[in-house]
Amino acid sequence: MRARFAEIVTLPDPYIDLATACACIAAEADPGVSSRALHDELDALAERVRSELPPYLGEAARRDSGIRTAAELDAILDGLHHVLYEELALSGAPRDAWEPGHTYLSDVIRLRRGLPIALGVLELEVGWRLGLPLYGIGLPGHFIVGGPEGRLIDPYSRGRTLSEEDCEALMRDALGRPVPLRRSMLRPATRREIIARLLGNLRGIYLSRREWAPALGVLELLVILDPEDPALRRDRALLYGRCGRFTDAVRGLDRYLEELPEAPDLEEVRIARAIFGGRRN
Description:
By secondary structure, the protein is of the alpha+beta class. 58% of the residues lie in helices and 7% in strands.
């Protein structure tokens, strides 16, 4: 699945299969995860929404339908939200109780709880299957979804429509300080950015639980996604050490020190390198 992930994320951004990338991420925790099974789940949700729409909208609510009227888009979006947030009762997992399962899409569907970005990706994937022009928005501290006619949607709050003031409140609550909303913050996120943000959240969860091996798996994917970032390779090397792979740790830290001889964390990295070097295997 790592090889498949590498194939996906090197494609031009519009061709990146976000759902398959999410399945590859979940396979780090459960090698039995199937991208086909996840696609089937998402297809089934889209078909469920379609089946509950009025007949004149059922055929229009398809990926290649070419629907254009605001009224049609709003009706389909409302139908999507009814299935996701009323029938399935999806909602945001409490921030102080996030766990890895709140990131993996199949687990989110099963648990009915998720992180903001996981619920956002779920809404995007099902919405795209219905022909909705949705896009992700990576606000500082919170992930939301943009929709027709500039509509702002918070999947973490069961599809609530947001004002710009609401967005500022979400950022303030997440970051603990006021953040003025700039229009640039509402630009569509690329698929690579969405994947990176999802992995970053998952990495933070594993590190907070001191689960070094799965955190290392996430770092491996982050390095695949952005192989030119020396900080990611440094962090991977440090996790190699946490997992007892001391030779790999030393090799990675040596590369970091060679690439960035004036890095601000030079002394800390040298100390870690000395510790791992004494335990090389």
